[in-house]
User: Which sequence fits this backbone?
């Protein structure tokens, strides 16, 4: 690293660091008293002992950004207690301790040296003029590697001014360095090698250093070391790689089985399974990376494969148990039918015999008939097998039986076999009741008896009334619905039909409270009360036009999850199984119940089956109001008929069903109870029973031709394809007015003229709608239109926020599972989905593995910058790859979440479950990347420290990826995921000031890179101290901020998740 950029730093603190060279010598003496040292050495220790405490405090105050523990760092750099031979040799060389002490630099000289060292340009290799070395006075001691004594002056190492050094100049001692232009000695730190230089006659350089002999002085010789600075300027002073220097005057080659990095004092043994040759500067630990990858791959393979096997075995066992229960229930039902047939035959035979022999009833035959009736009742009341009862029970047993009947039938059921037996027994009983009440033999009284049958479970009734309902699109002043009045009654199926653009879907959206971006006038009443439909969302089912289901779940898993989250929490599991099995049976999904639904990329069930699953998601929650948007589109006639039969069964339980249909067959059309026929413009043309629609239009002179489907004929007329052949001359535009006048509804003012023209006899008052809006057609200016559009956009966003954030009171008599229980359900579902997407996960891991290998090969750990370049590439690569992967967590099933949250499922439970499952990848991905990058670059920081930083980085960028996935569409989110890491890293790696400094602090790469560099820089000590301080100063890092960096990364990840969750609450489907 070059110190050219560090001129602004007045390195008086480095002076303090270096003067500890003297201050730490007595520390070594205290730690290990060298009994063999000479008296002169002990005298030197006593001279500098008084300066130690003062210098240590000054180091702490001025250099804390690069020295975390001064005592430990300086002890590693200047504790010569293990070998002070160089000191004794230097004293002996100069003959006396006084002369040796007089050659040591004072505090003033050290300050002068280090201040100018960091202010001088890179090309400068000498100090500026001073008292001893200037234009008029330049003695041999001013040359590099030489020093002079102070002579007879009193030596005070803490003096503030430079002493005069003019005499007795000689070469610098081994283990010391003498700067060019200073004429005094400074001890070399541990990890350096400071021998006397030898002259290379070829180039005139004093090796191993880079200075030359002064010209014109033939008697001058090479001295000792001349500079201690950063590794870029004084690399020759550092103990070379592949060797270790136990002292500053000894250099030994690393032996086999160990390695020595640059600046090492002792050799480090190589790990097991790693072979290190002699003179090795690093150990090849790629083998450990390969072993780690093998272990990780084996673990992931076991997890994915074993869990898949576990799921498969569990599914097979459940299928066997379910098939056995269904078979047992069918056999029981057949036995019950055979017993009933035999009983009926015996009863008929007895009646025939009694009629043949006598008109008077035989008492024996009468008693036999009574017994048969009692047995019949006992058979019909049994759920599993016929039970023969004879005689009366004792009073005690009778009361006990009554008590038992009060208990729920599902109490005590714990095993899957018991639950399936109960569920299929209930289903067989329902089938028997359906056969007894076959539509072909059902009269009006039969329907009433079915509806009032106590054995058929009833649901809370919901009647939806709408009066003068008008829906206007904001900004365009376009009516989607106008003056719609009517009632949707419970227990009936209402078909909403009309030509394209008639507002059928808008009508259902308005009823379901999903009409955002529109102004609504009129009234919508729930059971005669003005309540919000959102207050009943737990018992309202809405089937969207698109088949929004989870493609990587099976049919049964989709239905079962919806049932668990939306049915009452108090409902026993056996009853929930009954509900799910009933829906599967009624929708004809039994053959594909264990098949994946499939996606666009991966083929699954057929389109018609997928449509039925879409409907089944709402049927399993047992709604009181069921709204369906084109459920029969894409279905063949048989599938549509089967779906309608299932819906008719729902209507018998009191469900209010309304659905949009297109071109139903005549058979399907006759299965509806009511019809709402809409014309273009959102007007009602007819609303009433299906059986009376032809009668109504016949009254208008519109008759359905033979062999023509009535709904198709009416829609063709409203579309203008067929012109009605009537004597009244009625047109399609007049049909809405005819309906209003027929029912006495108020007519909008802009239609009164047409209504009056249709009155042929006399003057008839036409009621005016009080809530009708007469939209003008006055043209606005460009500025007015622009202002109006802005207002409409603000109002639309306000409506969305109000719809998504404001919670309405819960009026539904159903308590669904809480957040914690739903979190458990979501956790199981998402975990299952991730395991089925194991190939996608493996691709992510493979890409990270290749990125780690490539970057680890291309970017070697640099001792000058502590590997900052490689870590910068790591931050960009990991951020990009992990953000792209995080986008899939919420982008792929965004539509499914919107549907689930609109139905009342917990968004918090869904988000926490997603994040919890992603923690597995968060923990694994750093290991995958570091298994290549760390073992290729082999930095000095530990694997654990690198893993902790990378773990926090992945957690941080995953939270940011969540936010991008929520707030942006898929394409824009991917673009931002690529740009953000690059831009933020470029900003963070610059030395910024002012506003850019604040922006840099807001960029997460700045904190991640600082944590990486600090973790690596802490391992550089001894001769590396100046290099460490210079590198940290240049980057603006503080060695004490490692924990702060970790906290900032975690905090950024948490904030990203909070922002994403907030976005999930406010950004819903328009």
Assistant:
């Amino acid at each position: 690293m070059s110190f050219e950029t560090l001129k602004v730093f007045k390195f008086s603190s480095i002076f303090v660091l270096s003067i500890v060279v003297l201050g730490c010598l007595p520390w070594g003496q205290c730690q290990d008293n060298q009994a063999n040292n000479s008296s002169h050495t002990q005298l030197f220790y006593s001279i500098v002992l008084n300066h130690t405490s003062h210098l240590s405090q000054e180091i702490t105050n001025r250099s804390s950004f690069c020295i975390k523990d001064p005592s430990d760092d300086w002890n590693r750099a200047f504790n010569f207690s293990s070998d002070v031979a160089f000191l004794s040799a230097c004293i002996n060389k100069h003959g006396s301790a006084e002369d040796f002490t007089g050659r040591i630099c004072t505090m003033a000289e050290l300050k002068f040296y280090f201040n100018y060292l960091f202010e001088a340009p890179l090309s400068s290799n000498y100090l500026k003029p001073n008292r001893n070395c200037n234009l008029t006075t330049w003695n041999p001691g001013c040359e590099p590697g030489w020093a002079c004594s102070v002579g007879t002056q009193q030596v005070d190492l803490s003096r503030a001014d430079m002493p005069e050094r003019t005499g007795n100049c000689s070469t610098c001692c081994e283990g010391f360095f003498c700067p060019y232009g200073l004429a005094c000695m400074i001890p070399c730190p541990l990890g350096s090698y400071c021998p006397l230089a030898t002259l290379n006659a070829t180039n005139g350089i004093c090796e191993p250093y880079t200075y030359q002999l002064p010209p014109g002085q033939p008697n001058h010789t090479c001295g000792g070391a001349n500079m201690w600075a950063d590794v870029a300027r004084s690399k020759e002073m550092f103990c070379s790689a592949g060797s270790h220097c136990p002292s500053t005057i000894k250099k030994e080659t690393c032996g086999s089985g160990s390695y020595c990095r640059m600046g090492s004092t002792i050799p480090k043994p190589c790990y097991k399974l790693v072979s290190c040759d002699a003179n090795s500067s690093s150990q090849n630990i790629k083998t450990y990376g390969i072993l780690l990858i093998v272990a990780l791959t084996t673990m992931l393979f076991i997890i994915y494969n074993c869990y898949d096997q576990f799921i498969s075995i569990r599914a097979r066992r459940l299928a066997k148990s379910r098939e056995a229960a269904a078979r047992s229930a069918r056999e029981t039902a057949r036995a019950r039918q055979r017993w009933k047939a035999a009983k009926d035959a015996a009863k008929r035979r007895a009646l025939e015999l009694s009629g043949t022999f006598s008109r008077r009833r035989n008492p024996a035959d009468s008693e036999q008939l009574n017994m048969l009736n009692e047995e019949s009742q006992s058979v019909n009341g049994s759920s599993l097998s016929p039970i023969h009862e004879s005689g009366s029970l004792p009073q005690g047993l009778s009361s006990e039986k009554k008590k038992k009947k009060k208990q729920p039938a599902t109490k005590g059921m714990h095993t899957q076999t018991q639950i399936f037996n109960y569920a299929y027994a209930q289903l067989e009983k329902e089938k028997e009741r359906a056969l007894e009440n076959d539509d072909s033999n059902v009269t009006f009284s039969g329907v009433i008896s079915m509806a009032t049958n106590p054995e058929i479970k009833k649901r809370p009734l919901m009647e939806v009334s709408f009066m003068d309902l008008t829906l206007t699109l904001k900004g365009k002043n376009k009516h989607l619905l106008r003056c719609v009045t009517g009632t949707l009654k419970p227990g009936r199926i209402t078909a909403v039909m009309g030509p394209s653009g008639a507002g059928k879907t808008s009508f259902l959206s308005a009823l379901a409270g999903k009409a955002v971006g529109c102004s609504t006038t009129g009234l919508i009443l729930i059971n005669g009360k003005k309540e919000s439909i959102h207050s009943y969302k737990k018992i309202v089912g809405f089937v969207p036009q698109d088949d929004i289901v989870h493609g990587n779940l099976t049919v049964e898993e989709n239905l079962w999850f919806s049932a668990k989250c939306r049915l009452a929490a108090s409902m026993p599991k056996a009853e929930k199984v009954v509900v799910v099995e009933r829906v599967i049976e009624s929708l004809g999904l039994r053959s594909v119940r264990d098949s994946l639904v499939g996606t666009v990329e991966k083929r699954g069930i057929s389109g018609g089956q997928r449509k039925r699953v879409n409907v089944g998601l709402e049927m399993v929650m047992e709604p009181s109001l069921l709204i369906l948007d084109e459920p029969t589109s894409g279905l063949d006639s048989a599938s549509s008929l089967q779906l309608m039969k299932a819906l008719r069964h729902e209507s018998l339980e009191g469900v209010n069903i309304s659905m949009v249909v297109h071109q139903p067959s005549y058979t399907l059309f006759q299965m509806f109870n009511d019809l709402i026929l809409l014309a273009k413009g959102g007007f009602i043309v007819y609303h009433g029973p299906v059986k009376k629609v032809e009668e109504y239009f016949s009254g208008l002179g519109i008759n359905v031709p033979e062999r023509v489907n009535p709904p198709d004929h009416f829609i063709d007329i409203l579309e203008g394809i067929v012109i009605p052949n009537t004597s009244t001359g009625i047109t399609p535009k007049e049909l809405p007015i005819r309906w209003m006048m027929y029912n006495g509804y108020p007519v909008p003012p802009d239609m009164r003229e047409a209504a009056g023209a249709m009155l042929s006899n006399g003057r008839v008052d036409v009621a005016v709608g009080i809530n009708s809006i007469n939209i003008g057609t006055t043209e606005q200016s460009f500025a007015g239109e622009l202002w109006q559009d802005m207002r409409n956009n603000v109002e639309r966003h306000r409506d969305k926020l109000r719809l998504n954030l404001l919670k309405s009171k819960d009026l539904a008599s159903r308590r669904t599972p809480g957040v914690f229980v739903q979190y458990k359900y979501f956790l199981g579902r998402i975990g299952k989905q991730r395991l089925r997407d194991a190939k996608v996960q493996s691709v992510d891991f493979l890409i990270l593995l290749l990125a780690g290998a490539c970057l680890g090969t291309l970017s070697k750990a640099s001792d000058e910058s502590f590997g900052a370049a490689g870590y910068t590439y790591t931050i960009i690569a990991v951020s990009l790859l992990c953000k792209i992967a995080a986008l899939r967590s919420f982008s792929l099933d965004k539509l499914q979440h919107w549907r689930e949250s609109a139905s009342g499922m917990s968004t918090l439970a869904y988000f926490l479950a997603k994040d919890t499952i992603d923690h597995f990848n968060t923990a694994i991905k750093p290991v995958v990347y570091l298994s290549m990058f760390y073992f290729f670059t082999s930095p000095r920081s530990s694997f654990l420290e690198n893993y902790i930083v990378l773990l926090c980085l992945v957690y941080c960028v995953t939270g940011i990826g969540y936010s991008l996935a929520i707030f942006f569409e898929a394409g824009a989110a991917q673009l931002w995921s690529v740009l953000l890491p690059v831009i933020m890293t470029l900003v963070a790696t610059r030395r910024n000031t002012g506003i850019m400094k604040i922006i840099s602090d807001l960029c997460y790469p700045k904190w991640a890179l600082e944590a990486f560099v600090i973790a690596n820089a802490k391992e550089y000590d001894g001769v590396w101290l100046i290099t460490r301080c210079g590198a940290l100063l240049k980057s603006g890092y503080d060695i004490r901020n490692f924990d702060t960096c970790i906290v900032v990364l975690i905090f950024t990840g948490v904030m990203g998740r909070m922002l994403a969750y907030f976005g999930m609450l406010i950004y819903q489907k328009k």
In short: The longest helix spans residues 286-357.
